[in-house]
Amino acid sequence: MNPWHDVSPGDNLPITVNAIIEIPKNNRAKYELDKESGLLKMDRVIYSSMYYPHNYGFIPQTYCDDDDPLDILVISQIPIVSMCIVEAKIIGVMRMLDQGEADDKIIAVAEHDKSVSHIENIEELPEHTLNELKNFFEDYKKLEDKEVVVERFQNRKLAQEIFQQSIEDYKNKFS
């Protein structure tokens, strides 16, 4: 079974999606899905002394311009173990460029974590949370001499549109 291709993106689209966690929050290891085997592999230990501020993964049966599934950050009070499927409510998107190429990150909250599940839109997050995300993604590759630019955070409506497009792109690529 390959989690990218064989796990449903969810039952309540585009409100909530199934997120597959690759990297638990507060972790320095950069894990990613091996596209062929469906197993998780360690790509590297982050060069800088930074930790992922939130749970990071992907949405199954999506496809983006970087030849990967759509990335998602799932905010929760706990680190979520790697390869766990989490029902996540989309609240926004972080638009960014990774070495000059678009690399959007959907921002979501864990639907079954009462400490965050009440949040509906990215505007409801504390400004400091957004600043932490921006700082992490702009700085975590600096010691690799790679540039990442966070352009802006956008609302739930645009995030859901980006998600829907990634579903269509997946169907066009793999059907």
UniProtKB/TrEMBL annotation:
Keywords: Cytoplasm, Hydrolase, Magnesium, Metal-binding. One of its GO terms (biological process) is phosphate-containing compound metabolic process. It catalyses: diphosphate + H2O = 2 phosphate + H(+). Its EC number is 3.6.1.1. Mg(2+) 2 binds at D71. One of its GO terms (molecular function) is inorganic diphosphate phosphatase activity. This is Inorganic pyrophosphatase. Mg(2+) 1 binds at D66, D71, D103.
